[in-house]
Amino acid sequence: MSVTQTILETIKAYPKIMIHRHQSPDMDALGSQGGLANILRASFPEKEIYMVGGPVDKLNYLVEMDTVTDEMYEGALVIATDTANEPRISGEQYKLGELLIKMDHHPDDEPFGDISFVNTKASSASELIYDFYTEFQDELVLTKEAARLLYAGIIGDTGRFKYPATTSHTLFVASKLREFDFDVAELNREMTEMPENVLRLSGYVMENVIVDENGAGMVLLSQEVLDRFGVVDSETPAIIPIPGKVKGMKSWGIFVAQPEGFYRVRLRSKGPVINTIAKRHHGGGHPLASGANAADLEEVEAIYQEIKKLVADYVKK
């Protein structure tokens, strides 16, 4: 029996399913989580199916989380989507479930779960969930809302089909999802609009990006800068692509101060593999899009020096 067949049979066996995703969710985290939840609710209306996790902040136009109690996890199946390692699962209650399934597309460097389905060739976890649906479409139902969420997840993780993970299959999946009658124009507006304070922070990023002669860049967002613009960390993903607009930029890091004193690090690349850097600093992710943490400004500088060396070596090849 294939792992996907095992997952379907396991889903059938449980009357209660709790679906989690990663902390600080992006569109793919919520798209895959919500897409799977809607597919399973339509396919198995007799089951109790919940979406669980922390705040979704400005992405609440996609989905809202359900309210659950510890007692509801008794005898429940837990599924975690778009989550590379167990510590990143949003919602500690997942540990209370009876069985844990991982459905993800990140490099499987830190396996977890009783059943694991990982496809690193998928552009996104949302694409992976769609493929799971199509494999068993005689038994599963894809709704308009599920299509909207999976489409949003794919758009988010491919940067509107600009990133290298976009394949002909990705475009095929997106085209099949667009056959459903959801308002794609409204969805695009919701995905591109940003609050005025984030827009003004974008201007600060453009003015203060540092880039060396090889195309290694960085932006530091101190707590003072965040307070000046009235921006919190969960609002900063919109500024991640900005340094990549600099001609010649090959890889960059955005360092965002956290209230606890450390810095959240977002790493992006147009060629050099940067998840090796992330793994050395309490993080991980895709070869060209990763995340890490820096304890202080000294580690921030150390990470930037690693980016500079990585890019310099890349340029020499």
UniProtKB/TrEMBL annotation:
- One Pfam family, please name it: DHH
The residue ranges of the DDH domain are 16-154
Top-level taxon? Bacteria
| Segments forming domain DHHA1 | 246-312
Q: Which InterPro entries match?
A: DDH_dom, DHH_sf, DHHA1_dom, Oligoribo/pAp-PDE_c-di-AMP_PDE
Q: SUPFAM superfamilies, from UniProt? A: DHH phosphoesterases
**Protein known as:** Bifunctional oligoribonuclease/PAP phosphatase NrnA
Taxonomic lineage of the native organism? Bacteria, Bacillati, Bacillota, Bacilli, Lactobacillales
